[in-house]
Design a protein that fits this description.
This protein has 156 residues and is mainly alpha-helical. Helix content is 76%, strand content 0%.
């Protein structure tokens, strides 16, 4: 089952269960996906096409990152009830993301991408990051992976 269909069926299930947090979060996800499809259509002169699973994963990953940032800001500001709401939304969104790689798996993936791209210096960092994003979308935090790639390439 495609990611969009999983989200849609999750939305229907949340309506039946009257789960308000899950329902509102899934509605936000659906709206973000539809907005991206509309934006894509306007860029491609009206050509209608559905987002691929990897494009939907990118949207979900961005939504999780935004909520982590918001929760951190709320916690620093003493607004714990709002931070809890953001964390609850993160939990719902992460249900649709693939399992995150462990640090060891992430290091192996980075090493494989460096050798696969034939990267030898920092100039090749873009190739390595593109390969990682293509193969591990939603499975790793690229904000963490970037410095790791940079460190490995600067040694080489």
């Amino acid at each position: 089952m495609g990611l969009k269909k999983r989200i849609s069926s999750g939305l229907k299930e949340a309506m039946k269960d009257r789960d308000t947090v899950r329902l509102s979060t899934l509605r936000l996800i659906s709206a973000a996906v539809k907005d991206s499809e509309i934006e894509l259509r306007s860029r491609e002169e009206g050509e209608r096409r559905e987002l691929s699973d990897s494009e939907v994963l990118a949207i979900l990953t961005k939504m999780v990152k935004q909520r982590h940032d918001s929760a951190r800001a709320y916690e620093e500001g003493g607004r714990l009830e709002l931070a809890e709401k953001e964390n609850a939304e993160i939990g719902v969104i992460e249900e649709f993301l693939p399992a995150q790689l462990t640090e060891t798996e992430q290091a192996k993936a980075i090493d494989a991408a460096i050798s696969g791209a034939g990267a030898e210096s920092l100039r090749d960092m873009g190739k390595v990051m593109a390969m990682l994003k293509q193969n591990y979308a939603g499975q790793m935090d690229f904000g963490v992976a970037g410095p790791m790639v940079k460190e490995r390439l600067s040694k080489g």
